[in-house]
Design a protein that fits this description.
Elements: H1 6-15, H2 21-28, E1 29-37, E2 40-43, H3 44-55, E3 58-71, E4 74-85, E5 90-101, E6 107-116
Parallel strand pairs: 1-6
Antiparallel strand pairs: 1-2, 3-4, 4-5, 5-6
Helix pairs in contact: 1-2
Length: 131
């Protein structure tokens, strides 16, 4: 078993897609995937629909791994990503990713949550952030 890494999955699925979406999903995610992000649960089909929407709107993106740990079938990782969307929106977030891997090393169950890092210079800041 060679375990997958979420940074590789993000690149292949959304930021630098070289594979068809279904092929990329098969490479990283087990058929029985349960994906829980910020309290919302998706099965593999719903996750694929979400990813397809993102993939179709990303112009470019980068991901930086900050911490990563494999322990048997348990996986934890913290990363930051920045992506530019087709409408010019830039999303910069830090994510916490906890997963259980299937026996073949693909993601079986995922829990993730994150927060926005900053806004691009020149964009208005939310009122609460002004000082």
């Amino acid at each position: 078993m060679t375990p997958v890494r979420i940074s590789d999955a993000i690149r292949d699925v959304a930021f630098e897609p070289r594979l068809a979406l279904e092929e990329a999903l098969d490479k990283y995610y087990a058929p029985g995937l349960v994906h829980i992000a910020d309290g919302r649960t998706r099965d593999r089909a719903a996750f694929g629909e979400m990813v397809a929407g993102i993939r179709g709107n990303v112009v470019e993106g980068t991901v930086t791994v900050l911490d990563e740990l494999h322990d048997g079938l348990n996986y934890a990782e913290r990363h930051r990503y920045r992506m530019t969307m087709t409408d010019g929106t830039v999303v910069h977030r830090e994510m916490y990713y906890f997963a259980t891997l299937a026996e073949d090393g693909r993601f079986q169950q995922v829990h993730e949550s994150g927060f926005d890092i900053d806004q691009e210079p020149g964009l208005p800041q939310p009122e609460a952030d002004r000082r």
